[in-house]
Design goal:
The protein is an alpha+beta fold. It contains 6 helices and 7 strands; from the N terminus they run H-H-E-E-H-H-E-E-H-E-H-E-E. It is rod-shaped, with a radius of gyration of 37 Å.
């Protein structure tokens, strides 16, 4: 009898082929980073708009404003100015005009030559840029004056007596008297202690600017005491006293362009020429 053969069944294992996911790359990361950056910039913009006032926003806009320089070539010259002069308003004069002092013959032929003043290139070039620089300085001066007066307990009550007005010539700073505040002793050019401290604070605000200055004295229409002096003399002396205090407070004397007294001819309150507010000192920070 033959033994039985035990045959193991054949088992075949088949691996199921899986479908691998396609590789997407990192492009989505760049897009997401751009989105996050844009959102951050947007929220920063919202924060700046909420945390600044109109003057500060104007200063920021001026800082980022592009400066456009138009250059044209003129026949016979390929230089930077294209053979054109700086003296004309549009910078397109047909020929260059020499700058600086030029000798001029003295009438009669006697003596040496005298010089005629001609506008320098620095004063004539880039009027738009200089105008923007002036506006920035004027806003800075106003902020400094406001901060100094607000931070001084003895002068905080006089903030209303300092009036800053943008005029054609520049920035005018008016220091105005009132019924209970006098800058000078009656009929004199001697500053009161409060007015002296006020002038020094204003001097500190304008000392760092390069702009030239004018000082004008004003009086009311109350007749001056008997004597050779009058309101014209008094207003002029007070303007010059202000100049001397400004100079002693750090302002270069060469920056003063004009010192004048106008008596009561330019009243603050034309309806009442005896109004104490007509007595004032005007310091104008001139355009460059």
């Amino acid at each position: 009898m033959k033994p039985e053969l035990h045959i193991e069944p054949e088992v075949v294992y088949r691996k199921r082929k899986g479908h691998a996911h396609a590789h997407h790359g990192g492009a989505w990361k760049i897009a997401y980073a751009d989105f996050v950056t844009a959102m951050m910039a947007f929220f920063m913009l919202l924060w700046i708009l909420g945390a600044t006032n109109e003057d500060q926003r104007k200063g920021i806009a001026d800082y980022f404003a592009p400066t456009i320089i138009q250059m044209q070539n003129s026949g016979g010259s390929n230089g930077i100015m294209g053979g054109r002069a700086l003296q004309t308003q549009d910078g397109n004069a047909p020929a260059a005009i020499p700058n600086g002092a030029r000798p001029v013959a003295t009438p009669g032929g006697g003596g040496g030559p005298m010089t005629a003043e001609v506008t320098s290139p620095d004063k004539a070039a880039n009027p738009g840029r200089r105008r923007t620089a002036d506006e920035t300085r004027f806003r800075m001066v106003q902020r400094i004056i406001d901060a100094r007066l607000a931070g001084d307990p003895t002068l905080k009550g006089l903030r209303g007596q300092v009036r800053l007005v943008r005029v054609h010539d520049g920035l005018r700073i008016d220091i105005i008297e009132r019924a209970d505040f006098s800058m000078f002793g009656s009929g004199t050019a001697a500053f009161t202690p409060q007015a002296l401290a006020l002038i020094r604070q204003i001097a500190a605000a304008v000392a760092e600017t390069p702009n030239r200055l004018t000082v004008r004295g004003h009086t009311d229409s109350v007749p001056y005491a008997a004597g050779p002096a009058n309101n014209w003399t008094l207003s002029t002396i007070r303007a010059d006293t202000t100049r001397r205090i400004l100079t002693a407070s750090g302002i270069d004397e060469a920056r003063f362009r004009r010192i004048e007294g106008v008596a009561d001819t330019d009243p603050y309150n034309p309806k009442d020429r005896r109004d104490p507010r007509n007595r004032r000192i005007s310091i104008t920070l001139l355009n460059q």
